[in-house]
Design a protein that fits this description.
The chain has about 90 residues and is an all-alpha fold. The chain contains four helices and no strands. The longest helix has 19 residues. The chain starts with 10 loop residues before the first helix and ends in a 10-residue tail after the last helix.
Length: about 90
């Protein structure tokens, strides 16, 4: 579902999409996530049902940049596979 006007569907479906995106944005603005990083905002919007393309457009960035931020975060946080040093 791209941020632009849906190509198919009834007028009510388009209205529901606009309302859903608006509510997701308002939810983000009413939480502490509005001061968070771009990735935190995108993850919140994604958790509310928006895909990265819609979240990126709302946040003024691209879907590719959000996916790259998420990849870097997973890579930095990924201590999987490493053994802890024994004391």
């Amino acid at each position: 579902m791209a941020f632009g006007t849906p190509q198919s569907g009834s007028e009510w479906e388009r209205v529901a999409v606009v309302i859903g995106r608006s509510l997701a944005f308002l939810c983000m603005q009413s939480t502490s996530a509005k001061e968070g990083t771009l990735l935190q905002k995108a993850e919140l919007l994604s958790g509310l049902g928006l895909d990265y393309a819609d979240a990126a457009q709302m946040l003024g960035t691209t879907e590719a940049s959000l996916k790259e931020l998420a990849r870097v975060k997973r890579k930095k946080g990924g201590e999987r596979g490493r053994r802890k040093k024994s004391i």
